[in-house]
Specification:
By secondary structure, the protein is α/β, with parallel strands linked by helices. The protein has 7 helices and 7 strands; from the N terminus they run E-H-E-H-H-E-H-E-H-E-E-H-H-E. Helix content is 41%, strand content 14%. Strands 3-2-1-4-5-7-6 form a 7-stranded mixed beta sheet, with helices on both faces. Strand 4, helix 5 and strand 5 form a beta-alpha-beta unit. Helix 1 packs antiparallel against helix 6, helix 3 runs antiparallel to helix 6 and helix 4 crosses helix 5.
């Protein structure tokens, strides 16, 4: 049941969680799930090109605009539990230090997630190495969070959670293969409204709107349920496991 789930979303940049999982986030929140979002960076250097074209743009002015955009988007999606870690981007790898790793493991142990949504583990994003680094980082942290041998005072080890990877931009070029399709029809308008907050990356609004239509087509074809209109897709970090084929 959605209402019983605890979800942790880890987004490399200010808008990634909206483009790639905004509908799923809104659906889970609407269904009563606990959803926590961690935004590692604002994408100031690498994902704010249009803002840098404005006269007088500075690092701080771009940061504040990105913060305002993502805050508005989070409110539209119904997100009340969101953290901005304000790490540098492009490249992000040097910022993923042992201190940040411990912070992420603490966050995982605090949330005790059933589900983690983050970037695709296969390192498939052909255009954005930050996304690939974050996918690897989150996966490694999840394994350490599950380990009794990784001692952090005041924390409780997590149980194995399900991990799902975002669909990247330029899907086919990135060789992304959907493992799970989620119907977001009931919250599609929320997702569109949230995407429209990001004036720094206007080109992605149309791209992920078209993706939602395409994945809706796939949902109808695979499930046979003709009520599915819009969808999001994710890669599966692990195979499904249980007593039935699901």
């Amino acid at each position: 049941m959605i209402q019983d789930k605890r979800v942790l979303v880890v987004s490399a940049h200010a808008a990634d969680y909206v483009w790639r999982s905004g509908g799923t986030i809104a659906k889970y929140i609407k269904g009563g799930a606990q959803v926590h979002v961690v935004v590692l960076s604002f994408g100031i250097r690498g994902e704010s090109n249009d803002l840098w074209k404005q006269e007088g743009a500075t690092y701080e002015s771009v940061k504040q605009e990105r913060l305002a955009e993502t805050t508005r988007a989070a409110e539209i999606l119904g997100i009340s539990q969101i953290e901005f870690w304000d790490l540098p981007d492009y490249p992000m790898a040097p910022a993923l230090t042992e201190e940040v790793r411990e912070r992420m493991i603490r966050k995982m142990r605090q949330v005790q997630p059933d589900i983690i949504l983050t970037h695709d583990r296969n390192g498939s994003d052909i255009l954005n190495p930050d996304h690939n680094e974050v996918a690897r980082f989150v996966f490694e942290c999840s394994i350490q969070s599950n380990s009794n041998g990784y001692r952090l005072e005041g924390t409780k080890t997590t149980k194995q959670m399900r991990l799902f990877g975002f669909e990247p931009h330029q899907t086919e070029l990135s060789k992304f293969v959907p493992g799970t399709l989620i119907d977001i029809s009931e919250v599609y308008e929320q997702k569109v409204a949230a995407m429209e907050c990001f004036k720094a990356q206007k080109h992605l609004i149309r791209y992920y709107t078209e993706r939602a239509h395409l994945r809706g087509n796939h949902l109808r074809r695979i499930s046979g349920n003709q009520t599915y209109q819009y969808g999001e897709s994710f890669s599966n970090f692990f195979p499904a496991a249980g007593e039935e084929l699901i």
